[in-house]
């Protein structure tokens, strides 16, 4: 089946089929299809989250994801509350099949986003807190082995020695596609009483050790 035929079927697909279409367009000859694929993919994700509504993604959401997925560059999104930044974080793994690591400043925000991600077919989110690590002794080991699609945690957990050690696993690093720092303006505002925010730069140093391996894709016959 051609890429054009696959694009025409996106609205009928399961979410698990999206990465093959998204990654197939990661060639110069398919640049003209990239925006449309991501737009339709986001629309399908929104429908999956709430089947009662037929919502359209914002153009800016699509542009940001295109930069992240095909441009492979750093992105700073400055947008008002309610814009839909979280949808971008959550959709990345669904669209690419890669692992998302999301730094969240507040546990309540983490709980809300964890519940939102759970609504997506095929998503396997994990919320790392002191309590979850205590109740699930093998949690970091499961993260290291790539059991989850989305890992949400605060700066204190992200900068802990145990988590940084888990990140050094080549197995995990090859799976990571996105590190998202939610509400990143707080790094400056909260640096005096939550100094762990200032250690997030170490994640970039750790994650430079191993390049990501592009996932395999195959279009339907």
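-> sequence recovered:
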């Amino acid at each position: 089946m051609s890429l054009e035929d696959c694009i025409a079927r996106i609205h009928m697909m399961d979410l698990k089929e999206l990465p093959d279409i998204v990654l197939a367009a990661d060639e110069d000859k398919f640049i003209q299809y990239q925006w449309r694929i991501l737009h339709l993919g986001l629309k399908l994700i929104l429908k999956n989250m709430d089947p009662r509504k037929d919502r359209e993604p914002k153009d800016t959401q699509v542009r940001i994801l295109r930069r992240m997925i095909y441009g492979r560059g750093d992105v700073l999104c400055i947008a008002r509350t309610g814009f839909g930044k979280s949808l971008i974080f959550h959709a990345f793994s669904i669209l690419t099949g890669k692992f998302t690591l999301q730094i969240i400043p507040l546990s309540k925000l983490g709980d809300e986003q964890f519940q939102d991600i759970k609504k997506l077919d095929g998503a396997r989110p994990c919320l790392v807190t002191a309590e979850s690590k205590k109740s699930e002794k093998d949690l970091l080991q499961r993260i290291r082995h790539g059991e989850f699609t989305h890992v949400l945690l605060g700066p204190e957990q992200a900068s802990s020695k145990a988590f940084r050690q888990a990140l050094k696993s080549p197995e995990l690093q090859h799976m990571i596609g996105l590190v998202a720092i939610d509400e990143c303006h707080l790094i400056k505002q909260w640096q005096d009483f939550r100094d762990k925010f200032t250690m997030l730069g170490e994640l970039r140093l750790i994650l430079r050790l191993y390049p990501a391996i592009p996932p395999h894709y195959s279009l339907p016959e």
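The first strand starts at residue 99 and ends at 103.
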